[in-house]
Design goal:
Layout (H helix, E strand, L loop, with lengths): L5 E5 L5 E5 L4 H20 L4 H21 L7 H8 L10 H17 L12 H12 L19 E3 L4 E3 L5 H15 L2 H4 L3 H15 L6 H14 L6 H11 L1 H12 L7 H40 L5 H13 L5 H6 L3 H4 L5 H12 L6 E4 L2 E4 L6
Antiparallel strand pairs: 1-2, 3-4, 5-6
Length: 380
Amino acid sequence: MDNSKIARVPTFRSGNFVFSRKHDRSEIEPLIYCARLLYETVIAIPVLPQWSTRFEEEIIRRSIFGTAALEGNPLKEEEVGKILHDELRGRKADRAEQEIRNLKAVYQYISEQPPAPSPVELTEPFIIEIHKIITSDISYAANVPGKYRPHEVKVGDKDHGGVYTPPKCLPDIETLMAKLAEWINSDPVKAMDPLLRGALAHYHLGLIHPFGDGNGRVARIVEAFMLRLSNMKYVPTMLSNYYYRKMDAYYWAFSLARKSKEYDVTPFFKFVLEGVIDSLSEIKDGITYNLQILLMRDYMAYLREKKRVSQRQADLINMLLSNRRPVTLPDLLTMTPFNALYRNVSERTARRDLQKLAEKSIGALKLQDGKYMLNNERFK
């Protein structure tokens, strides 16, 4: 084993705790390369200011929903969106709502952090402040906002790699949190790719489990903060939603790294990097779709000017661009908003509109599995 990649810390009651950056480079470096290449592709795509604002709002909503749901918050994503937009302001928040409000506050807090030299320093007071914001005004058993736990806990379950007992007493936690800050800010760790360094902070905070509650949310927010200050857009907040969607794999990746006799964190690195790649692919698809909408609207305006399509046919395409769903002929006649457009025309006319828009010479629609959908391939 390369002992330069691990740091053993003796504790009072918990034995030796190991900080590790040991991983299989042959498995991790191709994923980093793929993530970086995809990121460069994403940021090179032109994005209108209103798109960027909308993307950020949507990503934060999904991230807050995901990181809360991972810890058992029962609210649906739509309900989370209402809380974030202050639509429920004025009523007393229950625990689930307060968790969302606190996460909104913590995202605001990290967005207000001043620019810092890269790689960013991670400090113990910052981690404590994150926990304080996340758990304030919520009655969790044996938890004090902004304070390390003085008691023993157990985490995990048999379906995801077994139960784990983190460091057992307050002196051990205090020792390890101080050591975490020292280790994560050491030159060898700072020299690592920010994606890996953020994952290491996330993973080791999970191992130490320093607070009475909110540990997972703290770890994921700290990771997002570190990535954000490494000048990476979108991904820092996207990751929590990926972790939620891949919940079982998330817990297994953590368990496999924790149970490695060689202190090999490759399983957790792989999972995080796969999440980065998945998130970037989703962002790329979203930006590309918006560009295709602009191109399709411009294309329909051109066809209308040349009198190759009717105003009704152009309006139908614009409706489909807004609804992002395939349609059938009956849909045009019976379903809102299409039925308003086709209220005073025959079924034959509606069928002719669909067929014309799908003709090769127009190519605005394509017929697939009996449904008409936008032909985005027209602009690839």
